[in-house]
Amino acid sequence: MKYRILGRTNLEVSVIGFGGIMLNNKKQNEANQIVKDAIESGINIFDVGPTYGDAQKKMGPAIKSFRNDVVLTCKTEPDNTKDEVKTDLENSLEVLGTDYFDVYQLHEVTNQKDLNQALGHGGALEAIVEAKKKGLVNFIGFSAHSEWAAIKLMNSFDFDTVMFPINWNYWFNKNQGPKLIEKAQETNKGILAIKSLAQRRWHQNEDKQNYNTWYKPIFDNDELAQLALRFTLSQDIDTAISPGDIRMLNKGLNIFEQNKDNLELTKRELIKLKGFIDEHGGQLYPIP
Of 218, 269, 263, nearest to 4 (Cα)? Predict the structure, then answer.
């Protein structure tokens, strides 16, 4: 595994991160093994949230003996009130069996209304800032799926981290990602990339092969998956949070191990990746 510094937080994080939603509906002993295997592979950053089913409940016991060795990130919904976020955060701390979060984030800011509510008086951000003053949160971040929202958030508050889709299809098809990275780097914000192994939204009646992700992960095209993950990891990001399926986490780890000394795409490989868009790309956002 390789590690990078998460922006100005000085937290050292594995370049492959753990998407905690994959623990949803798992039996506890299975969740324990998944987390143990991930840590043994070198993963040290784990992301989860209260909207991911029972994932928090499964991650808590699974991560307990490793807590001091990992970076734990959690989140709350941007339309929650200050009091609701306080309750949300305290419940997450209890369920996950921890005294603090390394990073606590506004989750999925997608529209102007949620943005205004989160940043306004009595909104979510006020509760997170107060939690930081109490030592319950070390750093404050957000996730967004469009550059306009991410840049507006960064212009409105000095967040420590940004979670955003740095995805081959979204980058070349919609030109989403470059401006976000440039803006985040102005104040050395940590960048957590998501959707590195996402292909597109599922087609109607498509065979999902028991994948529970809202998008189609690149599970059936090894060349595309390799190029897509290397593309994300070769950008100025700090960690790529895995898709919410253990099969895709393992696929990502295998791709990384095979290419860890050669993440940069050649001109020919970049042309090849762009060439996949017509046949294998398509709409990714908004979330259906």
Answer: 263
